């Protein structure tokens, strides 16, 4: 069994992949698009993608990527606790640090710490938190997960994230078009028609059927001015008529509809 994820091996994505499938062979990729491409081509049996963070919200680029990719669906989901640490190569005084490197999500989640301790440092965006390890030198620090270890690496004793209660939701994707037989949560994207009452009509489906919406987010549709794409999760039993009706009606009422994931 092979699982594709964003590398290198010390990244949060690889940590999440090991939580999903500890006995798998992991295919570390340089971008989330490559992660999905490995799944589509058959070079991986599963793909691991982060879809949201409890501080910064939906990871819209990844949600757009999945929405635009036919034939794949999320089949498992879990929240990975995130603890960021400042990492240096040896003991380096803060005053010597001129650059701070990490993934854009991690830099954003540690913004207050960086501004307080390195107000003049240049921020360098890497493809993953773990990639920042390759850039460390006498004037460069990185931000990585607390799980990272290595010869000569010095990690801060405390979590440097602005919010200590931080977690990222990861999904495990596989090639399929129909939900698994045992599914209790459903995550979809829908574009409402650009007309009065369109969103209320979409939300009303779940109220009418007594289904609980557990998450909702949105973003503008990039190719048009006005419409928004909504990302929603609701709870229900895949075998119930209510869930089947909700999925069918949401597809009917939305200008675009895509079932992104179905899982327990």
Explain how this protein is built.
- By secondary structure, this protein is an alpha/beta fold.
- Helices cover 25% and strands 36% of the residues.
- It has seven helices and 15 strands.
Task: Give a nutshell description of this structure.
This protein is of the alpha/beta class and 264 residues long. It has 7 helices and 15 strands.
Strand content: 35-45%
Chain-averaged pLDDT: 93
What structural class should be given to the helix and strand makeup?
alpha/beta
Q: How many angstroms separate the termini? A: 21 Å
The coarse overall form would be globular
User: What would you report as the Rg, rounded to the nearest angstrom?
Assistant: 20 Å
Structural features:
single chain, about 260 residues, alpha/beta, 6-stranded mixed sheet, 5-stranded mixed sheet, 7 helices, about 25% helix
Task: Please render the helix and strand layout as text.
Elements: E1 2-6, H1 12-20, E2 25-29, H2 32-41, E3 46-53, E4 57-58, H3 60-67, E5 72-81, E6 84-89, E7 99-102, H4 104-109, H5 111-117, E8 122-125, E9 140-145, E10 153-155, E11 167-175, E12 185-191, H6 198-209, E13 212-220, E14 228-235, H7 241-253, E15 256-263
Parallel strand pairs: 1-2, 1-3, 7-8, 7-9
Antiparallel strand pairs: 3-4, 3-11, 5-11, 6-9, 6-10, 12-14, 12-15, 13-14
